[in-house]
Amino acid sequence: MTPVRLRALEILLEEHAAMGAYDVLARLNCEGLGSKPPLAYRALGFWVDQGFVHRIERLNAFIACAYPQDAHNLVFMICRCCGTVAEAQAQSGKFVQSAAQTGFQIEQTVIEPEGLCPSCQPQVQP
Ligand SMILES: [Zn+2]
Ligand SMILES: [Zn+2]
């Protein structure tokens, strides 16, 4: 385990937010671990392969997995206002059923619902 890999995961865990590879790289650079983009991509890719980090296609960003012990579908609720990302666990029963009917074999389901997080929803005045 290289220090860069370890720090890349720790940085994502500390932030509790989705981060671009360049944000992670900036932090690694600050700590004197390196400044070359492939360094960050390799470190993040390693954790993605291990299932500890997810890549959010829509944001082109990475986030530490909230449920690393469980095999799960990927559901990222993305706040369109502040950009906060929360991971949720969801069942894919219906997908699997309809896929089975067509003979399609699903390997992974990724859902990225967009909306407003609790702090961005309009407050109801008392
Ligand atoms: Zn996860
Ligand atoms: Zn928000």
Task: Write up this protein.
The protein folds into two domains: 3-64, Arc Repressor Mutant, subunit A (Orthogonal Bundle), CATH 1.10.10; 74-118, 2-Layer Sandwich (Dna Ligase, domain 1), CATH 3.30.1490. It is built from four helices and six strands, in the order αααββββαββ. It is flat and about 50 Å long. The model has no long low-confidence stretch (mean pLDDT 89). It has 126 residues and is α/β, with parallel strands linked by helices. It has helices at 3-15, 21-30, 37-50, 93-102; strands at residues 53-56, 61-64, 74-79, 85-88, 110-111, 114-115. Helix 1 packs across helix 2 and helix 2 crosses helix 3. Bound molecules: zinc ion (2 copies). One zinc ion is lined by residues 54, 65-67, 72, 87. One zinc ion binds at residues 54, 65-67, 72, 87.
